[in-house]
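Late entry, evening session. Most of the bench is empty. Finally got around to the prediction I had been postponing all week. Sequence below, unchanged from the version circulated by S.P.
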Amino acid sequence: MAKRIIAIGGVPATGKSTLMKEIIKECMPLKTFKYKLVRGLYNIDKKIYIIGIYDNSVFSGTDKLSMATQPDFIEFINKIPEHKIIFEGDRLFNQSLFNKVDCEIIVLKVDEDIIEQRHHIRQDTQSDQFKKAKETKIKNILDNNNVVLLNNNTNEDSIKAKEYILNLIR
């Protein structure tokens, strides 16, 4: 299995993809890779794989992967024993994966008023029902796992979160 697997999650608009884009800048140079349904970026010298598709769209990361990615991801991590893997987003950030794979789970925490501002700024169309389902999912993960909570309310918080994660993959 991979040397270290870091899973970043949080309710919508907590800044998961934005944080990951900052981490990607620190991992350059990166190449794209594809393993069955798993897609992402890697730096072979640093032995880092970043799972997900990152482009200029509002929703990126593992959200752009197939809903059926998890079995291929589990197969993939068993083929790269000396590497570190990092991902964020809904496709892989779930209890069924955490029951099968030892991950370092990080949840980004943001004040409710800031989350509402971010939804407004990005003009997303996520329904209240969808948002509530994601809140329940994250609560269940918090209740059933050892989780590191990182605040992501301010630019300073974001810098601290980025540094914390970079220290895990160095």
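Two things to note before I forget:
The domain at 4-169 is CATH 3.40.50.300 (Rossmann fold).
The CA atoms of residues 23 and 162 lie 6 Å apart.
Will write this up properly tomorrow.
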